[in-house]
Amino acid sequence: MSTSDATQATKSSKKEENIRVVVRCRPMSESEMRSHTNIVEIENTSGRVTLLRSKSAGEQKREFTFDYVYDWNSKQIDVYLETIHPIVESVLQGYNGTIFAYGQTGTGKTYTMQGESNDPEMRGIIPNCFDFIFSHISKTENLQFLVRASYMEIYQDEVKDLLSKDQKKRLQLRERTDTGVFVQDLSSFVTKSVKEITHVMNVGNQNRSVGRTDMNEHSSRSHAIFVITVECSEMDSEGESHIRVGKLNLVDLAGSERQSKTHSTGDRFKEATEINLSLSALGNVISALVDPNVTHIRYRDSKLTRLLQDSLGGNSKTVMIATIGPASYNFEESLLTLRYANRAKDIMNKPRINEDPKDALLREFQEELARLKSMMGNKKKKLKDKSKKVGEGQSDEDEDEGRDHEAYLKEQRQKLESEKVALLQNTEMVEEEKDRMVQEVQTKMEEVKKEQKNRDNLAAKIKAMESKLLAGGKTISVHTAEQEKALKEQKKQISAQKARELDIKHKLEVHKESASEIKETFNSLQEEVDNKTRKLKKIYHQLELAKTEIEDHTNEQVITC
User: Fold this and answer.
1) Is 52 helix (H, G, I), strand (E, B) or coil?
2) Whole-angstrom Cα distance, residue 86 to residue 96?
3) Which region, left, alpha or beta, applies to residue 100 given φ > 0 means left and ψ of -120 to 50 means alpha?
4) Of the N and C termini of the chain, which has fewer Cβ atoms inside 10 Å?
5) Which residues in 355-369 are b (16+ Cβ under 10 Å) and which e?
6) What are residue 247's phi and psi, to 5 degrees?
7) Residue among 502, 509, 503, 499 at smallest CA distance from 46
8) What sign does the dihedral 118-124-130-135 (CA atoms) show?
9) pLDDT for 362-390, tens place per residue?
């Protein structure tokens, strides 16, 4: 993206935008099919989720509409391309982005976020993000990138660095006016490929807190946050370097639990209590953000809400993925998840492009590289000046000016070696004078060796730093790039078409109801009375639903019971 495009994007980014909310329902398990019924209906085209307490006739339906909904037949790649891909694209332009999965334990949050990396069709959001980021960089010209990764978890309301050698160390949260909330001393690793960043994630996963409960064999006992920071440098028309920094937060939340179902005891019960308390704080923040009467948002009630402060009502483009289970015995938990997700739709964020931040690591790399290259140039000039004193008439500085530094140092060593041999073979020189001159030549040779070693060290440092900076146009053929671009555009068009169809469908339903009322004619007074009675019953039913909604909202809590 050019500098002018970035400027235009910055201007347009001042507008507020809603959090995008996605609902995904996992399939019924074998044990659930034996003992329970499916109470969830998913209508993909309209974005509607319907929840029934049971399949019995006369049961009230709970209906919700979201940006996207996915049933148990949905594919991992479709979830990524339709709902997550736009966020990742924005991060590469310099925005902050957050994707977090929320829901009851055992509903597929970790599967949605991570999936199975060895199976391309089962890979989750995180590995698909990795692929796109490095694919995008490899195809981008005239830009320089630096990609780094961090991985942390919140376990019993304590922050732990999953990539640290000391897994007992707990980190503190700090806040700055320019960057917001951050984790002090959180390690960060520069990565140059999908393989490297995947390795970073795998190392962190080995340190995650997991355990078995009656509802999940491998239950996450902590909230995990994988952070990808992408720094991009671009030269303007005047040769000035401008840096944009995008940060992608990939959040896998631990699931809410009821002790009566998980039968957790001891440490598992303590973990569940802390999980539910932090999720309760998250729910309170979501509710407060959409309540016009609330003037103070209690982000500080938990470390989770503090870390998600920018993602909820701040400088970020955010997608919330709510996962639910379809079985009848999870009705209350699924309803609670859908209610929180429904409220989150109304949260307004204020995303903006992060341009030329003070703490950009890419800027530090560029300045350090310039300093090292300058040092190497100075050392070469200094060495030439010294070498003129050795073997008068044998060194021609003008001739050496355009030579490679490595060849130059080799030539100096050969000259000094030749002069040393000549001095030793000279039988006419006084012995003391010969020893003095041999010693002088030996000293010069040591200086050349030292300079060579310093030069090699500087070259190694420069090579190591340059290897961490990524530039495009090197690894992927033009044909493959065009195919990927065409596929991406096709997916984006399909996604946009679905959104338009959903909007048109909603508008048609409203117009259809209005038109029906206008065109109504009756053959008799009794027919009109019957029609009005049906309408009154419908309105009364809606009133009862509203009362239920208010009662549920008043009583709902995410605590163990």
Assistant:
1) strand
2) 12
3) beta
4) C
5) bebeebbbbebbeee
6) -125, 125
7) 502
8) positive
9) 666 666 666 666 666 665 555 555 555 44
